[in-house]
Design a protein that fits this description.
390 residues, alpha/beta, 6-stranded parallel β-sheet, 3-stranded antiparallel β-sheet, 20 helices, 13% strand
């Protein structure tokens, strides 16, 4: 779908590389521009790096040097998209800012992914996924006030949300460029996505604390979901139960033998059940503690209820649904490969390629953009590829 599109990826770790992994999976050519020390993910999380770097070309450039910046400018002149993940101002200092690169290529689509965005009082603060999730309300369990104690989130939600949004923006900007012939600068703030994802289902809470909602309702009444959460079965394994609609409530009552609750008018609506959340949750916990998880899954499936297992990673690998969707494969070295969550019909074969060694494509890319051997030797001597010569 993106065949013929060239992407320069100056980003490190997860958000930007996930964005460019999606673009590569859609057929784009991705040139990963790494500093002399390489992407830290090579050491911090080798499997993640292999999965995200599959099919990309790695080159090494030291953008702290004038020759390194010279090579980047020539590359940018031929690229369609550039993705960077620096703090605001760093790209400009390295000669990799939009103003400078777009002068070489007015059609360049420039994606800047940063923690807090290019504006605002937090823009220069360091951070990671958990920090942005905290700022955006995602660690508050849906209540107006944060909890006393926080628990780390296993999935890097904000990294993946912002990376997905960046890929969408890149594809959209390329579509617009087809008619305007102009690129553009796109500011992707991870904390923005944390807030949006965290608050999209907290409308009643937000309205209440903003003074626009039901002032008589307590935080628990506003935010509590009576049959929506993670619950433990008798064998210690967990289920996710997501029952909101009245029809599912009635089916749940029948499946659990709660005929007495079916006749109570105050529980007939979702709003009414929220008023009695604690009593319902206590009764549900007690009921689920009487059978192992798989028995409950069979019962709830027969009742056509939105209930699913809470899988550990071993179970994820063997889950029949995920296996059927083809999310896991084996790479050429016989190792597990996690594939981008895209339809198989558009997923590029590059997803199954090996991740590149650091700088493995430098020589070929320099050849391609017109540097002869003498010029390459001069760049190496001038430190364009780092103090060790790349």
């Amino acid at each position: 779908m993106l065949k013929g599109v060239t992407v320069l990826d100056l980003s490190l770790q997860l958000p930007g590389p996930y964005c460019t992994a999606l673009l590569a999976a859609l057929g784009a050519r991705v040139i990963k521009v790494e500093p002399p020390a390489g992407d830290p993910a090579r050491e911090l999380d080798p499997p993640m790096f292999r999965w995200l770097a599959a099919g990309k070309t790695s080159i090494v450039l030291d953008l702290r040097t004038s020759p390194g910046r010279q090579v980047l400018h020539r590359l940018a002149g031929r690229a369609d998209v550039l993705v960077e993940g620096f703090r605001p101002g760093v790209a400009d200092r390295l000669g990799a800012g939009y103003a400078e690169l777009s002068a070489h290529n007015p059609g360049l689509v420039y994606i800047a992914i940063s923690g807090y965005g290019q504006t605002g009082p937090y823009r220069q603060l360091p951070g990671h996924d958990l920090n942005y999730l905290g700022v955006g309300g995602g660690l508050s369990a849906g209540t107006p006030e944060p909890p006393d104690d926080g628990e780390p989130i296993g999935s890097p939600i904000v990294d993946l949300a912002s990376g997905s949004a960046a890929a969408l923006l890149a594809a959209s900007a390329l579509l617009e460029r087809a008619s305007t012939r102009r690129g553009q600068y796109l500011d992707v703030a991870m904390a923005d996505h944390a807030a949006y994802w965290s608050c999209i289902k907290a409308g009643s809470v937000l309205e209440a604390v903003a003074g626009e909602g039901d002032r008589g309702a307590s935080p628990a009444e506003l935010s509590g979901e009576p049959t929506y959460g993670v619950f433990r079965a008798a064998d210690g394994k967990f289920l996710s139960i997501a029952i909101l609609e009245d029809k599912f409530w009635r089916r749940l009552c029948r499946a659990l033998g709660w005929e007495d609750l079916l006749s109570r008018p105050e529980l007939a609506s979702y709003a009414g059940r929220k008023q009695h959340r604690r009593a319902i949750v206590a009764r549900l916990k007690a009921a689920l503690s009487t059978r192992p998880r798989n028995e409950w899954l069979d019962i709830f499936e027969a009742a056509d209820l939105p209930v699913a297992p809470v899988n550990g990673y071993r179970e994820v690998l063997n889950d029949p649904q995920l296996t059927a969707r083809g999310l896991f494969a084996t790479d050429p070295a016989g190792r597990l490969r996690l594939l981008p969550p895209l339809p198989r019909s558009v997923r590029s074969a590059a997803c199954l390629e090996e991740a590149p060694a650091l700088g493995a494509g430098t020589r070929a890319v320099l050849d391609e953009i017109g540097y002869d051997l003498r010029e390459q030797a001069a760049l190496r001597a001038a430190g364009a590829f780092g103090p060790d010569g790349g």
